[in-house]
Amino acid sequence: MKRATFGGGCFWCVEAAMEQLEGVESVTSGYAGGHTENPTYREVCSGRTGHAEVVQIEYDPNEIAYEDLLEVFFTIHDPTTLNREGPDVGSQYRSAIYAHDDDQLETAEAFAAALEDEGLYEGIVTEIEPLETFYEAEEKHQNYFEKNPNDAYCSMHAAPKVEKVREKFTTTAGSETTSP
To answer: How far apart are CA 79 and CA 41, in angstroms?
Structure first.
């Protein structure tokens, strides 16, 4: 198993979307990229910890490649808006890739550059840097969409991302129009 860590706005949305993919064994919501040890959700939401809301994905590289995860990541959020995704505003909602090793770092940098070169995005602001520390979010934030599908925020923001993944990528739900 390998791990990947991404921040693309609210972790509930990214977690719900990534959980749909074949080869993804688990997705854990948490915090990374900041300076406060063991931050709480409330502290991260204050914007003073330096952390981003992120998800850490455990995946089987024999079933899904890191590049495939990057493709899904860039599909489900807007990597051109600084410190914002949808209604969520603040540095804790920034677009970020926290690499677990040099290969992931180089792959992510090349992937983002290729998206810009191809004209798919203009002005990608996604931070790409080595992962220093990942802090797991409180239990109530884990599998939030699955536990709260009728929550208004989830209905408006997470559900469309889940549907996009189900329509476009090979998923555990069996839908596949494009295999990442």
So the answer is: 23
Q: How many domains does the chain have?
A: 1
What is the residue-wise DSSP string for 18-44?
A: HTTBTTEEEEEEEEESSSSSS--HHHH
Closest CA to 21 of 53, 67, 78: 67
Quote the CA–CA distance of 121 and 171 in Å, as a whole number. Answer: 25
Which residues in 61-88 are b (16+ Cβ under 10 Å) and which e?
eeebebebbbbbbbbbbebebebbbbeb
Residue 55 · residue 66 · CB < 8 Å:
no
pTM: 0.94
Is 51 contained in some domain? yes
Condensed to tens digits (0 to 9), the pLDDT of residues 102-156 reads: 999 999 999 999 999 999 999 999 999 999 999 999 999 999 999 999 999 999 9
Active site residue 10: yes
Question: Is 177 inside any structural domain?
Answer: no
Handedness of CA 138, 85, 145, 111 (dihedral sign): negative
**Residue 12 belongs to what domain range?**
2-168
Selecting among 10, 13, 45, 154, the annotated active-site residue is 10
Q: Is residue 174 part of a domain?
A: no
Distance CA 133, CA 93 (A): 17
Which residue type is seen at 41? Y
